[in-house]
């Protein structure tokens, strides 16, 4: 079975990404077609990127926090990024977490669930560009949530039923790409 990480895109104390990720995991677990887990970037306490450039390519990380992060990303076959839109782009915490690694992302698949006042779509487009540079296959099916209609006045996540249908289509695509990419990775020579 493929292992899919549902990765939070923010570390702010009042963030919505963790609530959304936990709900998405419940939806995904009903399918029983892969192993899904919430990966909260806040748990890794990554400092601002400060690795020597050689560490990025050699995977000989100097920052202690980078090692468990690399191990987690390496253990996954695919990703669902839960991304808020900050200033028409990605949150700096997510970009920082992505920048710490290179090889661990390669030849894997990703999808996005974005949110913001206009669905966070621009954040998803920025994420697509960043991940493409790391040899991640980013599927086109995505889920865009509105902070105006998908949350109540007490900030509880109350998604429309259609969102679960769209999310299932996202997972169908993610797994369809994930299987052949896993075969490709399993047959690659190691270069470390």
Structure description:
With 192 residues, this protein is α/β, with parallel strands linked by helices. The chain has a single domain, classed as 3-Layer(aba) Sandwich (Rossmann fold). Strands 1, 2, 3, 4, 5 and 6 form a 6-stranded parallel beta sheet that branches. The longest helix has 26 residues. The chain is globular.
Give a short synopsis of this structure.
The protein is α/β, with parallel strands linked by helices. Helices cover 39% and strands 18% of the residues.
Secondary structure elements and pairings:
Blueprint: E1 3-8, H1 17-29, E2 35-39, H2 53-58, H3 66-75, E3 78-84, H4 92-99, E4 108-116, H5 121-132, E5 136-138, E6 143-146, H6 161-186
Parallel strand pairs: 1-2, 1-3, 3-4, 4-5, 4-6
CATH first level: Alpha Beta
The gross shape turns out to be: globular
User: What is the arithmetic mean of pLDDT?
Assistant: 94
Indicate the CATH topology.
Rossmann fold
Low-pLDDT runs: none
Q: Note the beta-strand portion.
A: 15-25%
Order of helices and strands: EHEHHEHEHEEH
Organism: Carnobacterium iners
Domain NADPH-dependent FMN reductase-like: 3-146
Protein name: NAD(P)H-dependent FMN reductase
InterPro entries: Flavoprotein-like_sf, FMN_Rdtase-like_dom, NAD(P)H-dep_reductase
């Amino acid at each position: 079975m493929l292992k899919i990480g549902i990765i939070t895109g923010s570390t702010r104390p009042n963030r919505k990404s963790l609530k959304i990720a936990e709900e998405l995991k419940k939806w995904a677990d009903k399918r029983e077609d892969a192993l899904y887990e919430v990966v909260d970037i806040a748990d890794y306490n990554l400092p601002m990127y400060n690795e020597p450039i050689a560490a990025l390519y050699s995977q000989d990380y100097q920052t202690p926090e980078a090692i468990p992060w690399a191990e987690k990303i390496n253990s996954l076959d695919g990703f669902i990024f839960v991304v808020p839109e900050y200033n028409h782009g990605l949150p700096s915490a997510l970009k920082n977490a992505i920048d710490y690694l290179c090889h661990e992302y390669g030849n894997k698949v990703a999808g996005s669930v974005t949110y913001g006042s206009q669905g966070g779509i621009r954040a998803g487009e920025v994420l697509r560009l960043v991940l493409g540079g790391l040899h991640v296959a980013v599927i086109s099916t995505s889920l865009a949530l509105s902070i105006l209609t998908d949350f109540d006045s007490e900030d509880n996540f109350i998604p429309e039923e259609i969102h679960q249908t769209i999310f299932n289509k996202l997972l169908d695509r993610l797994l369809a790409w994930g299987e052949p990419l896993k075969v490709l990775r399993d047959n690659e020579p190691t270069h470390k």
